[in-house]
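#struct-help
A.M.: can someone run this one for me? Single chain, 318 residues.
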Amino acid sequence: MFSNRVQRVDPWAETRPSSSSRQKHAQYRQTPPSTVWMKTSSKSSGCGCGCAPLLGFIIAFALILAVYLFAPMRTNMIFLGIDYAPEGSYVARSDTIMLAMIEPLEPYVVLLSIPRDLWVNIPGVGEDRINTAHFFAEANSPGSGPQALRETIMANFGIEMPYYVRIRFEGVRRIVNSMGGVEIELTEAMAGYPAGVHHLTGNKALAFARHRMGGDDFIRMEQGHILLSSIIKQSLKPKNWLRLPGVVITAVQVIDTNLPWWQWPRLGLAVLRAGPDGIDRNIIGREMATPFLTSQGADVLLPDWPQINQVVDRIFRN
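D.P.: on it. Structure tokens below:
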């Protein structure tokens, strides 16, 4: 009844891979390990194809920003300090006239102060002090003063000043007060102050810049440069940075300018990079002008144009 044939059982039958499994293993063995790793890593990185456009955008933005901030494009402008005028009016003389050229790449910042009594030809008016060009134009047509002075600069100095920054003396006082005052350092006695460091409020700072007793317009221009450099130097000190928003708000309120808003960051950065000690300060000195008494009894300064043009050429035509 029972068969004597014994079935032989293969002990490895249960663990032997099927034909389909053998094909998969063979396919895996034929795939190079590096390819497998690359597939795995690409899935785990989570970057995909989105990184390349983002990186390209960042690079392009950085290049545009660098060109904007550091392009070797010179900017010429006039700084005007306007004498006391009725509230809401600019009908007054421009007793502070300062030509500026800024080149952000180097950076190079240069200033040239012009004496207010310099005797020049004013287009449409005739010969007169240079500081009256603004007054005559504003009296005839409010808002035209800066343009009249720009035309006067072009007619006499031969340089184009496309932009202007105009501030009344009251505005200087308010800016200094918003800074908490300003410290000036004098190497010699000046404007009634002995040599040393002095803290000036807005009123005292304005009086220092305008002081003429015992001096003349040439000393006064130097005092203006000292005050401007002191304001810049104080703005760079970290302990004063908390005051900067208030200073900016005050400056916007008291400054009149045609300089486009997009110019301010690049020019401001150039001034900060140059620092107060890196600004090339110049004045039309007493050796470049001759005191003269007009037929009406006015004390004026006759320009020595060959000497003046040497300075102008170095700064604006180099």
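A.M.: thanks! Residues 1-9, 11-16, 34-44 have pLDDT under 50 and may be disordered.
D.P.: also worth noting: The CA atoms of residues 118 and 130 lie 6 Å apart.
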